[in-house]
Specification:
This protein is mainly alpha-helical. The protein has 8 helices and no strands. The chain has one domain.
């Protein structure tokens, strides 16, 4: 999916940057769990590509885009090497990684929703696929690491909710051809802002009473 007015090269760089950040989070968790090199690489790849590949399979867009462009497979390996060589250094840049992770969340939910709409899906399934694109890799990562997925934990700050709001915004903009480079950037910025503020102030989703 390409947005009108957005340089395809810029879009590709942003996409790969999001893949790198998500891959770093997966590789870092593998290192903390004391996995070997294979385990760290597996978590990095699953985190970075799991959401997008799940979306593409559900859309029937096969082979998934991540398998048609080898750079999307190389980036998680780069993240794995970074963690293997500088595990402590990666830990110390947790705040910058949080910022880029929030950027990736916004970008992936917008791109995922737009691709679903471009394939003719309705509003609700398009929102679902947008959220899967944004958070699916993290769910797969935590499941492989035998943890409760971050988005399901009662102590986690807002993550899936900002992605859902971003996906809904794309659905609203789509029918009137209002989704372009500028409006997409606004949606990404809004998702980014909500995610960062929730991490800063500890905003959490409500839980069942009692």
């Amino acid at each position: 999916m390409t947005f009108a007015g957005l340089d395809p090269m810029v879009e590709r760089v942003l996409d790969l940057a999001g893949v790198l950040v998500f891959a770093l989070s997966g590789a870092q968790l593998g290192a903390q769990k004391r996995f070997d090199t294979v385990g760290i690489a597996a978590l990095a790849t699953a985190t970075a590509l799991g959401g997008g590949m799940t979306r593409d399979v559900l859309l029937g867009d096969t082979p998934p885009a991540a398998l048609r462009d080898q750079m999307f497979l190389i980036v998680p390996l780069v993240a794995t090497a970074m963690v293997l060589v500088g595990h402590r250094a990666v830990e110390r840049i947790s705040r910058p990684v949080l910022v880029f992770d929030a950027m990736g969340l916004g970008l992936f939910c917008v791109v995922g929703t737009a691709k679903a709409l471009d394939h003719g899906l309705g509003a609700v399934p398009a929102v679902l696929l947008g959220v899967i694109t944004a958070v699916g890799g993290g769910v797969i990562r935590d499941t492989l690491a035998r943890d409760v997925p971050w988005v399901f934990r009662p102590d986690s700050t807002l993550y899936a909710i900002p992605a859902t709001l971003g996906a809904v915004a794309v659905v609203v903009l789509w029918p009137n051809d209002a989704l372009n480079a500028t409006s997409a950037a606004v949606v990404v910025a809004a998702v980014f802002g909500i995610r960062v503020l929730s991490a800063r102030f500890g905003w959490k989703a409500p839980t069942a009473r009692g």
